[in-house]
Design a protein that fits this description.
By secondary structure, the chain is an alpha+beta fold. Helices cover 59% and strands 9% of the residues. It is built from 17 helices and 6 strands. Strands 2-1-5-4-3-6 form a 6-stranded mixed beta sheet, with helices on both faces. The longest helix has 24 residues, at 180-203.
Length: 407
């Protein structure tokens, strides 16, 4: 009943949801939902969430206001909850979840299906559901418990976990640990496919990358839960290792370090911000493909040092005035020699190469539709809009405006 729940608690629920991206449910004392902010739909085969809310309230009603509950149901779905009080006593609960505290998803789902006699046909849906949940370690759950207790009590107090939860998972994780021999084989398999992936990235071969991704993801799950008390940390560590491996592969193809630094730093930050296995796997896929794109766009590995330096200088200064004499002076190379070597190795004049790269960049800007055509021309070193339009049409068969309209 909404009359029994303060508006402040509803506002707090919304703030927690939007800040943490976790599901937040406000219930009355009987477990009935008063307000809910949710990203997840629990599969029907796993029962009705309201049954968990009833159990949570049954525990919290007998606890003191400074206690929070870490509740786990029979299917391994977890919640953090704290009681909501008014002057006349207990009126309901604020609940964060569902989440999980382990990410060996495939083994976990197999056990859930077997132990609870669930239809085997539900396996795929259950895998997707569990992989979509946030993975919290013990420190995370303690912080969420403290957060809830202090929100609902209205002043800072030292929160304590309740003495019991309504149910416990039936999974014995020790039974699904890899044996020593299996672990050795998994490590060998991991390095084999990691090397295959690096070779594909070094070639800029997206088909090769896609071929290796599924196997890498299976291994990715197999190495989960290797750090006690921090279940997603090991997966993040593997993602960071992959980021480094992909960067090395792109560097070996001749991509300049400045490009590698930018993409590597960005993915390192994104990895740390990711808190679900599903999103982490998507991030690795995106990461592999972006490194491939980098190789396609900026690789100079097949060229002599002088030509490679000239190409790097051009690609990092497309918005500046670029001439053969200026580049030669910058690199301390004889202009005639550089011009000859450049054409011999690339099959195109330096001026032609500069124009091609500028047009390629222009296409990217035009597809994004965030800048005017005049602004794009100036960004890429074309001081004359009409000249830019003529050059663009010569290379693409269409005007900049037409290209943007079709993009």
């Amino acid at each position: 009943m909404t009359d029994d729940i303060h508006d402040d608690f509803m506002k707090s629920s919304r703030i927690i949801h939007h800040t943490t991206k976790m599901d937040v449910t406000l219930t009355d004392g009987s477990g009935k939902i008063v307000q809910q902010y949710s990203n997840h739909t629990i599969p029907s085969v796993l029962g009705r969430p309201v049954n968990d809310y009833v159990n949570i309230n049954a525990v919290l009603i007998d606890e003191s206001p400074n206690k929070y509950l870490h509740y786990t149901n029979l299917y391994g779905i977890e919640y953090i909850a704290a009681g909501v009080y008014r002057s006349d006593g207990y009126i309901g609960a604020m609940i964060i979840g569902p989440f999980i505290s382990g990410i060996s998803i495939l083994d976990f789902v197999q056990e859930v299906i077997a132990e609870n006699n669930l239809p085997i046909g539900e396996r795929k849906e259950l895998e997707q559901f569990y992989q979509s949940l946030s993975v919290l370690d013990e420190m995370d759950t303690n912080h969420f418990g403290n957060l809830l207790v202090n929100l609902v009590t209205g002043g800072y107090i030292e929160a304590q976990p309740a003495g019991t939860s309504a149910a416990h998972p039936v999974i014995d994780y020790e039974q699904v640990e890899l044996t020593r021999e299996e672990y050795k084989e998994t490590i060998e398999k991991r390095y084999h496919h990691q090397n295959k992936m690096m070779e594909a990235i070094q070639r800029g071969d997206k088909e090769g990358v896609e071929k290796e991704l599924d196997t890498m993801m299976d291994i990715f799950v197999g190495f989960s839960d290797r750090i006690p008390g921090s279940p997603i940390r090991s997966s993040k560590n593997m993602a960071l290792v992959s980021n480094t491996s992909f960067r090395v592969a792109a560097e070996n193809s001749g991509v300049h370090p400045i490009y590698l630094h930018i993409i590597s730093e960005r993915f390192a930050i994104l990895i740390e911000k990711t808190d679900t296995l599903t999103n982490l796997k998507k991030l690795i896929t995106s990461m592999a493909n972006e490194y491939c794109d980098l190789v396609h766009s900026f690789s100079t590995g097949g060229y002599s040092p002088h030509v490679r330096k000239a190409m790097d200088h051009i690609m990092m200064n497309l918005g500046e005035t670029l001439t053969l004499s200026g580049i030669s002076e910058k690199l301390h190379i004889n202009p005639s020699y550089l011009s000859r070597k450049f054409r011999e190795e690339t099959g195109i004049s330096m001026t032609g190469f500069i124009t091609e790269k500028r047009i390629d960049e222009a296409k990217i800007y035009l597809r994004k539709r965030k800048h005017s055509i005049t602004h794009i021309a100036l960004l890429l070193g074309f001081n004359d809009l009409n000249y830019f339009s003529r050059v663009f049409k010569k290379h693409t068969g269409t005007s900049p405006g037409q290209y943007a309209a079709k993009a």
